[in-house]
Specification:
Number of domains: 1
Structural class: alpha/beta
Helix content: 25-40%
Strand content: 25-35%
Order of helices and strands: EEEHEHEHHHEEEEHEEH
CATH topology: Metallo-beta-lactamase, Chain A
CATH architecture: 4-Layer Sandwich
């Protein structure tokens, strides 16, 4: 079974998750900002980071990447279709946070981890589930033995979903992605990119899948 800790970071209160096994091997999911502070917690827990995983490429989920990559010299992985969002991250941070940032060098999941479908963390196998809609390259990370699902900005608590107002977003794809995730067991804990955790049983009560069957 895996352990996790949620750290709320950055101006948009992004959930960064530390996920680790009994041997202390760990992955960092969505380090949205405050990379050195995240590293301090990692060191206090005596974790051994193996990789940084990104659910999508929006700036508020990647701002801590540079510090963590410099400190731990570990690879970063994300969906390749979101590479253009990393290029836009500096402009987005200036607009929303009124600050300048450095752009992290991020290879996509397909480039850095060829044809990846799973990530091994000690005795747990983490599945990579493509979850486009909010962004074209959105992914979720599912640890079936530990019953944990990291959804980024695809599913939130209280039946909320990621917004699709961007030109590159798709409400139809987002609903299909959510419906795909809802096929997982009800007791699965949902750990979103913002806000509090929930479980799939609660999401299923609140979510309307009207778009799932659209062509």
């Amino acid at each position: 079974m895996l352990n996790y800790r949620r750290l709320v970071v950055g101006g948009l209160a992004t959930n960064c998750y530390l996920l680790w096994s009994t041997d202390k091997s760990a992955v960092i999911i969505d380090p949205g900002d405050e990379g050195t502070e995240i590293a301090q917690v990692i060191n206090e827990l005596q974790l051994k980071p193996m990789m940084i995983l990104l659910t999508h490429g929006h700036f508020d989920h990647i701002l801590g990447v540079i510090d963590l990559q410099l400190i731990y010299k570990i690879p970063i992985a994300m969906g390749k279709e979101d590479a253009f969002l990393v290029d836009r991250a500096a402009a987005a941070a200036r607009y929303f946070l009124k600050r300048n940032i450095k752009i992290p060098k991020i290879k996509s999941i397909d480039e850095s981890l060829p044809e990846i479908k799973t990530i091994k963390l000690d005795d747990e196998t983490i599945r990579v589930i493509k979850s486009p809609g909010h962004t074209p390259g959105g992914v979720s990370f599912y640890a079936p033995k530990s019953k944990l699902l990291f959804t980024g900005d695809t599913i939130f608590a209280d039946g909320l979903r990621g917004e699709t107002d961007h030109q590159y977003s798709s409400k139809k794809l987002l609903f299909r992605s959510i419906c795909n995730l809802l096929k997982l067991p009800d007791e699965t804990k949902v750990l979103p990119g913002h806000g509090e955790e929930t479980n799939l049983a609660e999401v299923k009560k609140l979510f309307n899948c009207d778009y799932c069957e659209l062509p």
